[in-house]
Amino acid sequence: MSNESRKQPGVRATQKEATGKAVLEAAREEFERVGFEAANLRAIAARAGVSAGTVIHHHGDKRELLHAALFDDLDETLRRALSGMGPGPLESQLSALTRTVFGYYQRRPKLSRTLLKESLFADAPWAGKFTAQAGMVHGALAKLATEAAARGELRPDVNGALFAVAYLSFFYFALISWVQGAHGTPVSMVEHLVLQHLEGLRPTKKPSRRKSR
User: Fold this and answer.
1) CATH value at residue 31
2) 20 to 30 A from 23, CA-CA: which of 43, 137, 199, 206?
3) Do both 34 and 76 map to the same domain?
4) In terms of domains, do 35 and 52 share one?
5) Separation CA 133–CA 146 (nearest Å)
């Protein structure tokens, strides 16, 4: 077998991966441009430089393609955001996370509305995938809170898992408000809510005793 023949499977796999990424990016662009309902597979295929049959072969139908495009893009954003928070303090870490993830939503406002709806109400198997994605973020947030308590930023009795739920509640409330046009500065909203919540979790300072003369 020649060296060229040995390379072929690897080359095909690389080409397949590149085609898949091109299709997903084309889908995101088309969904943002015209909306999910108006988008069609032919236009997406043309944007990606492939045939409509190739798109169908990879993803089946438009809704499956939508879920794949949304999940893939959001997953990459969340992982980048979680790895890019840097060291404490906790409020700085959470601010970095909030700004990165909201930056993703704000770059594609029309697609964000679809993402919010589909990620919350997707059917199987995508429902499980989006739930696992949220679980990944929840676990990372719980770990941050636990580490902050160990550093003395929070009380030692603070429940990391509950803190993570609180942050996600703030985040999704701000996201829904922004998507509905009710609040124009969602990042600021989350940061203020988080800071207010953190104030109630700080260690209690014991009053200093004055020495009697």
Assistant:
1) 1.10.10.60
2) 137
3) no
4) yes
5) 20
